[in-house]
């Protein structure tokens, strides 16, 4: 069995320099091209070219800001498994992905399951989301909700 630090992502078609650049960007997405170039031993122009290439290929999907939810009044984080009638799966997913409380939404294996994460200011806001929005959507068969108690790790993108 491999140790965690020995694990390699299979079929990743980028070279070692790109991996170094991505690793540094993962830790500090605001680093300048000049400083990044110094860390990996290439010029600012070379770093910029590499990053633009990774963006064009879709390796880097976007740059973003990670906000601490509790600092902006978000105190409830919950995961939902939503069972949907198959013929309504796409319409339910399209509706849910537009809701600002929904932070992630996935189609999972099983009988038309959507797995969703949502954030709310308090339990009452989550209850309103469930009763007024989620339960009211045509095609929703059942909802299983689990409230997050403690976050140990949150993956923002893929770390190399």
Topology:
Blueprint (H helix, E strand, L loop, with lengths): L15 H12 L5 H8 L3 H13 L19 E9 L4 H9 L4 E7 L4 E8 L2 H12 L5 E8 L13
Antiparallel strand pairs: 1-3, 1-4, 2-3
Distance between the termini: 19 Å
Structural class: alpha+beta
The overall number of domains is 2
CATH classification class of the largest domain: Alpha Beta
Q: Main beta sheet: strand number and arrangement?
A: 4 strands, antiparallel
Order of helices and strands: HHHEHEEHE
β-strand number = 4
CATH T-level topology of the largest domain: Alpha-Beta Plaits
Q: State the helicity in percent bands.
A: 25-40%
Domain HTH asnC-type: 14-75
Keywords: DNA-binding, Transcription, Transcription regulation
Protein name: Lrp/AsnC family transcriptional regulator
GO molecular function: sequence-specific DNA binding
Task: For the structure shown, list the relevant keywords.
Alpha-Beta Plaits, WH-like_DNA-bd_sf, alpha+beta, sequence-specific DNA binding, Arc Repressor Mutant, subunit A, transcription, Dimeric_a/b-barrel, 160 residues
How would you describe this structure to a colleague?
By secondary structure, this protein is α+β, with helices and mostly antiparallel strands. The protein has 2 domains: 4-56, Orthogonal Bundle (Arc Repressor Mutant, subunit A); 69-147, Lrp/AsnC effector binding domain/regulation of amino acid metabolism (RAM) domain (Alpha-Beta Plaits). It contains 5 helices and 4 strands, in the order αααβαββαβ. It has helices spanning 16-27, 33-40, 44-56, 89-97, 123-134, and strands spanning 76-84, 102-108, 113-120, 140-147. The protein has a 4-stranded antiparallel sheet. Helix 2 crosses helix 3 (44-56). It is elongated and about 55 Å long. The two termini are 19 Å apart. InterPro entries: ArsR-like_HTH (IPR011991), AsnC-type_HTH_dom (IPR000485), Dimeric_a/b-barrel (IPR011008), Tscrpt_reg_AsnC-like (IPR019888), Tscrpt_reg_AsnC/Lrp_C (IPR019887), Tscrpt_reg_HTH_AsnC-type_CS (IPR019885), WH-like_DNA-bd_sf (IPR036388), WH_DNA-bd_sf (IPR036390). This is Lrp/AsnC family transcriptional regulator. One of its GO terms (molecular function) is sequence-specific DNA binding.
